[in-house]
Structure formats: structure tokens, C-alpha cells
Design goal:
CATH superfamily of the largest domain: Vaccinia Virus protein VP39
Strand order of the largest sheet: 2-3-4-1-5-7-6
Shape: elongated
Mean pLDDT: 88
Oligomer: single chain
Bound molecules: S-adenosyl-L-homocysteine
Strand content: 15-25%
Helix content: 25-40%
Number of domains: 3
CATH class of the largest domain: Alpha Beta
CATH topology of the largest domain: Rossmann fold
Amino acid sequence: MLLTISTTHSPATDLGYLLHKNPDRTLTLTLPVGQGHVFYPEATPERCTVALLVEVDPVVLSRGRAGASGLPLEPYVNDRPYAASSFLSSAMREAFGTAMAGRSKERPELAAQALPFEVHLPALPSRGDVHLADRLFRPLGYQVTASTGLLDDTFPEWGPSPYLDLKLGGTVRLQDLLAHLYVLIPVLDDTKHYYVDEAEIDKLLRYGAGWLDTHPERELITRRFLKHRRALQRAAQAHFTEDDLEPKRPVVPSLNDQRLEAVKAALMASGAATVLDLGCGEGNLLARLLPERQFTRILGLDVSPRVLTRARENLRLDELPESYRNRLILTQGSLTYRDIRLRGFDAAALVEVIEHLDENRLWTLERVVFADARPGHVVVTTPNEEFNARWASLPAGDTRHADHRFEWTRVQFRNWAERVADEFGYGVNFQDIGEADEALGPPTQMAMFRREIP
Ligand code: SAH
């Protein structure tokens, strides 16, 4: 994938000082997915062009990938090497980080000044809408020329190309230009190639500073940049200015978010380096554990192959850098059978899992987890049955999910946890999750077990 930026500011070769890159040299960067090259196809006093070429290694990208489209060659043969995407944005940060921060050692006054620039992105995906590039860049003051052609002139029957050839012209500060491209390229592509977490909000706010707030497509930009993750969008939204057209609602994390955050905090506080997520489901907890360097080995286990497939997709395991991927194992198994793979871990989480087993079979899980796997810490969450009275739509006596075999009151949970702790040589503490009702208690209850007898 290719990006070129040209200027006719005189002397144009000052572009080299602004980017901290000597126009006479080619620089090669090592990226998580391949290589980046920075070079100058032209460098005269009248006109200077810098090019950033990113070569994605399709084999690196394909590792562990089943082929999202179901086509067997899809992991190897796809548009990722050519189409501008978040890979290009990441490479921009590697290549032009200093300029993106607005600094220039040799030409600080030029860095602060709007200069005439032309940008060319010869292959930019614009999923579903050829006018989107225009709606994104024009409000920022650019002249936008976006053209689409045939996918391949030799084979007109293949139809039109889904890619734009985009040219932008404008007089802007280089720092702003780079920020606009950094945010809007992945927005046009509308896929992201690594897991998105809270760090993405920081990037959006940092590079969106000064323009995103008032951009007419702010909603769409935020939604797509944050990969359609609602919780992140809400959190980002809270940072925008108050004189907003929409009424503001306070940002209250969902019960699910609160639960996962509480479990993650408990695991981190335990000091564990190796963790089990037992009954990991679609990987919501795993997604929060992965970015934490404290956890060097994470094993997610679930009985259902279907949810494990969903977990793999949600985590975009196939596209994560190796340093992430190597720390995680996702595997199928049942908590009602002894499993030697679960031994030797520092901590385990059972988040909303125990209630999915028949109450009279729960003893099998107890033996597997507390007697055989025997991690140093075990965190268990389960609904508080008493709180169900507060769910307006829940007829008395019903559980929250059809698949819950039981739901316990606070006393029932406490009795169970204390008996288990006693029987298997653990100590146990309890914590409320979610906003507690004075009489009924919290919506979710959590027990934290700590092994006392090795
Ligand atoms: N912990 C996840 C999922 C909770 S739903 C979350 O908080 O999002 C309960 C999960 O337990 C389901 O994914 C289900 O497949 C799994 N499960 C049920 N019985 C199991 C068993 N015997 N062994 C392993 N996993 C089981």
C-alpha cells in the first residue's frame, strides 16, 4: 500500500526536515506485519514528494487464520497488501511520529505553519460508499478528487473496482494533515487488524484533537475507528464538548463491563502471571486480559466449539502481533472432566459459568477446578437471584437466561463458596458487582478464593 505527500512550498526539500527524513536516503522500517519504506520519488526545490510504501507479508497475516470468507486461499490472497488500511496508519506513526507530534528540530517555524500539500492514495477502500471520502475530507478544507475505475482494465467483466484513487489538495499544517490521514484511512477501510481497546480511544482523541469534535461525520468516524464497539464509543463520546446537538447521557458502564472489569482487577491484584478463563464464551474477558503485560500465559476454555469460533473472530487472533498471540491458548474442553492442561496456573476465572451446570453436577466442576487444576486464586461470579425482582421484564421465579440451571441468593452463594473453600483448603472473600439495591443486594455477586494449603 502506498501513500505519497507532495509539497510545492519553496524550498520544497524542507519536507525532509519536517519529516526528519533525509530525501537522499531510503529508510526501511520493520513493522509487526511486514516492512515499511520511506523514500522520495522527487526532491527538487520546486516540488518534493515523500512516499510511504508498506509491504504486508501475507504469510505473517495468515498465521492461524481459517479464512474469514470461508474460501481456502482467502488468508493468503486478499487485498491487505494493496489496500490502504490501519496498517498504513500504524506505519505512519512509526515513520512520521515526530512530525505527527508537531515537532521539527531544524524547522520548528515551518511545522507550525500551513503549507500547500497534495496527497495521493492510489488504492483506498471505501466500503459501500464512493462519496464518503468527500464527506470526510472536504469539511476539513481539502479539495477532494476521488475516482474509481474498473477492477482490471483487461477484464471489464470483473466489474468496477471497490477502491478509490484519492487525491487531496490543501494548505494545512503537516501535523494536521498526518492526523487527518491517520484517523480517516482506517475509517474508510472500516476493518481493523488488531484488537481495539481503550488505547484506541486515546489515539482517536489525540489525533482527532481540534477537528473531530466539530466534524459533521463525527459519529461515523468514532463508530468506525472504534470498530463498532459501543462501550468504547460511549466512552469516547463523553470526551467531546458539551455544546453538542444531542442530549448528553451520563456514561454508565453496562453491568457486563463492570463485571469483567471487576474480575480483571481481582486477577491483577492476585499478582497472577498465568490465568485460566474457564467457560470463556466469546472471549469478552480474554480481550481485556490480553493487553495486560502482567499476564504471560492465558488459557481460555469452553465446552462449545461455536462460541470458541466466535471468540477467535472477536479477538482477531489471526491478525494480532505474534507477541500477543503466543500468550493465548483457546481450547475446547469441559469443566466436568479432569483436564491436566488446566494444572499449574496462578489464577482462574469462572465468569457467569457455574449456573450453566446442573446444581447436582456442580460437585464435578468443584473437583476439576479446586482439587485437580488447583490454581492459587479462583474468581467466581454468578447472578444474585434476589435482584431479579428488579428486572421489570422477569416474571417471578424465572432465571435471567433460559440456559441458567439455577440462580442463587446471596446466602446460597455464600454457603456454597464457604463450603468449597473449607473442603479444598482455600480462603474466600466476597464482593458486590453492579449497583446494589438496599434490600435485594447487587445484581451480580463475586467470590474470590485464595489457596491456603498447597
Ligand atoms: N465467561 C463468559 C461466558 C459466560 S456464558 C462471559 O462472561 O462472557 C457460560 C459459558 O460457559 C458458555 O460459553 C458455555 O459454553 C460455557 N460452559 C457451560 N458448561 C460448560 C462446561 N461444562 N465446561 C466448559 N464450559 C462450559
